[in-house]
Specification:
Number of helices: 23
């Protein structure tokens, strides 16, 4: 027990070690997330019940992500770091005042939104019947407990990351998913859909409670008064407002998609969210891990006015994310149907559900690199104390997404070359509900445009970053990705005659063999193209091999 406690309190000293911890945590949390989605798909299928659940999630998630998880915690790290340079006592005094002020505002806002949930949900889900809307309202009101807990928890995570306590913060999302899984297995059989909502609340509580002991051990004591005019709170608000606008745009994006999805066939919202969760696993596992780990270091380098180190770290993380996210995206596209069958294909999840979710996943995979790199560039702007540029770009992106959504739905509704080619390319002839594909397509295209704009502005803002060198690196990665695609696709086709594709293990072995073959080709071509990031893989592999001292002496 003492060893576990010591491990949880361990300080992480480098970006790479922090990224490894966060990546491992993201991987475990992602596996639990996949198991969670498998349970949801098996229990409910891609139908009206999951549409209700995902729609009920929208308002609480909006509050949690916009006001706390992103905006406030994004401000906490650089401002807490700034106060910590002076003294730990001053830093915790700032944090205590900030915590009280925003918790008070969050409670007031939650009460308001709980009261007017029926009216708000009529806007978010205009296509729902009165009965479905009533169920959605009930779930939403239960889940409003989660933003309070997640809000506090994520602010605490920001502070713990400043102290480089990445291990303890990395466990929180794992426990969050465990809470939801418990809800599906233990609560749903007794309470139906309401059990899902209570599982979300349980997960949020576990996310929060695990971080409390170490926070107090580091020296935190709660502020005993509510001081809205505290200089630290005012500074946080100033830094937060543009960031809030940007995150609000991102969440409004999802609200717009939900509203449009509610007018489509039953299960459209579920299909979109299940595919989005699968692609989000790559973004979280790769891009988020590196970006979150890099953020405190980038903030520190900027505070020290070390522009050279700042630009070097940004470029290094950019290359690492791109090097790993491109092959993952390509494999997800090539093996999209197999992935959906393995993860979600059970119980009430039908073959048509599988086809639509796989097609949506394939479309999402085209924009994964943009989602991941946009996350890094946005956090880089936050480290520069510049929240305005990513906010404005995000607002523009949401407008594009809305416009593209309506455009693609209109195109998919009519018989034309666009709809025929999309349906043919994704092998969806005769499948109903294909209008849902307009949603991931719009989000992916608007996401790519958002990334291009962010890259353009970071080049203007920080001239030390060699964007042209990053673009040259990208072309090398794409060439290696072509090799991966050819080999993985060949392996996928060849394995059909060797395996029983009607069984789980047949599909699993096809996926595994294709992914391994494609990855091997990617690594080999990366060596040939002299991509520096592949050296880390080589060093890791050789470091694990047994060393023969006598052999080395002979040669």
């Amino acid at each position: 027990m003492r060893m576990i406690k010591k491990l949880l309190h361990l300080e992480t000293k480098t970006i790479n070690s922090a990224a490894v911890i966060l990546a491992a945590s993201s991987f475990v949390s992602g596996l639990l997330g996949l198991f969670r989605d498998r349970l949801l798909a098996s229990s409910f299928g891609a139908g009206k019940e999951l549409d209700i659940y995902y729609t009920a999630f929208r308002i609480p998630d909006f509050i949690s992500m916009v006001l706390i998880v992103g905006s406030i915690s994004a401000a906490v790290i650089p401002l807490f770091s700034k106060h910590l340079v002076k003294s730990k006592e001053e830093a915790f005094r700032f944090f205590g005042n900030l915590l009280n002020a925003f918790l008070f505002l969050l409670v007031i806002l939650s009460i308001f939104l709980i009261t007017f949930a029926p009216q708000i949900l009529k806007i978010i889900a205009p296509g729902f019947s009165e009965e479905d809307l009533g169920k959605t309202v009930d779930l939403t009101r239960i889940m409003f407990l989660s933003p309070l807990l997640l809000g506090i928890s994520n602010m605490i995570s920001g502070v713990l990351r400043v102290f480089k306590r990445f291990i303890i913060t990395s466990l929180s999302p794992i426990l969050y998913n465990l809470g939801i899984i418990i809800g599906i297995l233990a609560f749903v059989p007794f309470w139906g859909l309401s059990g899902l909502a209570w599982g979300v609340v349980l997960g949020a509580f576990l996310h929060f409670i695990i971080q409390i002991p170490i926070l107090f051990k580091l020296g935190f004591s709660p502020a005993k008064s509510l001081r809205f005019l505290d200089p630290g709170v005012i500074e946080t608000v100033k830094l937060t407002l543009p960031r809030t606008l940007g995150l609000a745009a991102t969440q409004i994006n999802l609200i717009v998609i939900t509203a449009i999805g509610s007018t489509l066939s039953a299960g459209s919202i579920a299909v979109f969210n299940l595919a989005n969760n699968l692609q989000g696993l790559i973004v979280t596992f790769i891009a988020s891990s590196f970006s979150v780990a890099a953020f405190p270091f980038l903030s520190l380098y900027f505070s020290e006015n070390n522009r050279k180190k700042f630009s070097e770290e940004f470029s290094s993380i950019f290359k690492k994310i791109l090097f790993y996210i491109i092959p993952a995206s390509l494999l997800m596209f090539i093996l999209r149907a197999q992935i959906v069958r393995i993860v979600l294909g059970s119980g009430r999840f039908s073959w048509s559900d599988t086809q639509l979710t796989a097609a949506s996943l394939g479309i999402f995979s085209l924009g994964i690199f943009a989602f991941g790199l946009s996350l890094l560039i946005s956090k880089t702007f936050y480290a520069l104390h510049n929240t305005r540029i990513p906010a404005l770009v995000a607002v523009f992106s949401i407008l594009l997404n809305a416009a593209f959504s309506f455009l693609f739905i209109w195109l998919m509704k009519t018989e034309n070359i666009f709809s025929r080619e999309v349906i043919s390319f994704l092998d969806l002839r005769g499948v109903e509900g294909v209008l849902v594909l307009a949603l991931p397509l719009a989000l992916s295209i608007s996401g790519i445009i958002q990334f291009i704009l962010l890259l353009f502005f970071i080049d203007l803002k920080c001239k030390e970053i060699e964007v042209k060198a990053l673009i040259r690196f990208s072309f090398k990665v794409i060439l290696a990705g072509v090799a991966l695609s050819v080999v993985a696709l060949t392996a996928r086709i060849f394995s059909v005659g060797l395996l029983d594709m009607k069984t789980f293990w047949g599909v699993f072995l096809q996926t595994l063999s294709s992914a391994v073959a494609g990855s091997a080709a990617y690594i080999l071509f990366s060596f040939f193209l002299k991509i520096g990031e592949v050296a880390a893989i080589k060093d890791f592999v050789f470091s694990k091999l047994p060393k023969n001292k006598n052999l080395s002496q002979d040669y």
